[in-house]
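## Example record

The block below lists the input lines for one assembly entry, exactly as stored, with component labels intact.
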Amino acid sequence: MGSYITKEIYAWGKYPKETCHVYRPEQPEEVKSILGSREQEHWIAYGLGRSYGDAPLNRGHGVIQTERLNHMLEFDADTGLLTCEAGVSLDEIIEVFLPRGYFLPVTPGTKYVTVGGAIANDIHGKNHHVDGCFSEFVHSFTLLTASGDVIRCSREENRDLFYATVGGIGLTGVILTATIQLIRVETAYMNVTYEKARNLDEALELFIQNDRNYKYSVAWIDCLAKGDSLGRSVLMRGNHAQKADLPHMIKDPLSFKQKQKWAVPFDFPSFTLNSYSVKAFNQVYYSSYQNSTKLVDMTSFFHPLDSIRDWNRLYGGNGFVQYQAVFPEDQRPEEGLRTLLTRLSDARVSSFLAVLKSSGPANEGLLSFPMKGYTLALDIPIKGPALFRFLRELDEIVLAHGGRVYLAKDSTLEPEVFQRMYPRWRDMVNLKKDIDPHGVFSSSMSRRLGLT
Amino acid sequence: MGAILVLGATSDIAKATIHKLAAKGRDLVLAGRRMDEMEKMKRDLEIRYQVTIWIEPFDALDFDWHETFFTRCVEKAGKLDGLLLMYGTMADQKEAEQDFSVAKQMIDVNYSSAVSILNLAADYFEKRKAGFICGVSSVAGDKGRKSNYIYGSTKSALTTYLEGLRNRLHASNVHVMTIKPGIIDTKMTYGVVEPTPLMAPPETAANDIVKGLDRKKETVYTPWFWLFIMLIIKHLPEKWFKRTDL
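Predicted structure tokens for the full assembly:
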């Protein structure tokens, strides 16, 4: 057994970078024999590396890359149920099924994530306020556990394990296959309404007024704007376009073109993105929008950044962190957001990708992130150790408003803070004692957070 | 349209090529030893590309079975438009030097069996006056090196066979193509061959193969730069080359 490569790997934020022993099985049975080899003490699965921090990393231990476990096993055209191996990417699902009138029930901002990763991070998309997380559409999955058994999990069967695995950052085992529900769509286009909000109050007002009318809803937010303009935003909200909405010149309503791929050829110097360049960008970006409704193709609406290959290089070789926090509805989220935004714009922390969104109710996933309220996500390039102290300040603001930080994006949270943010962490630790007493599944993140 | 027969369908280069062909709407007969893996490939390909896939057990070393095997493939698919020979084996050079049975196994899999099955295929396509035969050889067949010459010699025999076959079948409008991959990132090389910038993913080889079929190329090096690497190596005077440690 045991062909592996020892190399430095990282996820999308390029921070941290860690040396791990990387295995690349091609069949589910191989995963079993790799674990059985006991060549490494700890293991964690790694999909396409689109989480941001250390969730899929395992410094000095085993990493199981799942990208070649990507067979589609069954599809029922009547029900839209797809069974596939966990390494199938959302990109592959769109390519195969959108031309036939099916679409992903939930998609994050990139389609280059695996089904296994989507479950393990319980990802959400622009429709969270209406439809919830990816797991809502997962009927069942099979999980290879530390004992070597393959266990089928659903809401009916092994329910505890199902909700520990959903959002469980890979700590319960390796997801081998999953059955997920696709949704029907008539076209590959969206009707999108753009509305500008001059500040945070206006933005939240718009969300409160009519978010229910839109299946998909998100806002770009300017984190450098101050004073009366603090939190100025452009809301982008839409629904799937019907056939009748399309102009006649579109012959095939379901055909979608892969966008021209631009590539960022190298790591930009880290000074490229500074408060001046981002301020200029934000000004141009904000001014470029008018209140309007447009027909937009799905790629542009859901995955605009996927058309720029390796865009993470814009942040330079030191990498960046993405900070995503949710502020629950019942604990004055507008105050929390205002405090956070003020702190950000005072510190002139440049983030040209900042997103504000309303989120729906939490689910039963032990470590699942969303809760009813608002979530704010922003990218911050790493320019020095001061950033990490600054992030701890942000954590305190989030905690003070009963919120929490998304583990899929995290690389720096401290264990005590994590425990306060995710009160069900103890259930996870207890479950691990039962199903994985020797900590076969453990990652750099889980050790950092004190979960294993 | 007839189907394309792929021998050694579970190799990584074969898998990538099969996806590209199925994406173009081609029906395929997959042949190899691992039936359960091919069964899964069939399900995957039929869902993704809505084409018809047949699977058929094939053991390169079971020479007596080859004729029945080939007839069964033709019967299943109705008609074959082409054949891709994509299996091969590489044993450790030292072992093959010490133990003739190891060398013989490599010769039989890479060369003898190819002659056996391609003789049958050649007759079939010759009679139909159409179709293609594509064989995966190797850059290792271009030059004997002490680290790998037994494997290399089986591949250069295959290259020469395909060359002659191309010459024979040209008059019958049958396209014969030789593929010479360099270092490809497959399960055979993962964790065994040191990762190098020269290493290419199987998709690169698959792209080159499908493009080569479309353009009716004779010999395709994949990735392309191996043509130049081998050109230089082949032209080094033997007097010097024999002193090298490649």
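The radius of gyration of chain B is 18 Å. The interface with chain A takes residues 37, 40-41, 43-44, 47-48, 187, 190-192, 195 of chain B (CB under 8 Å).
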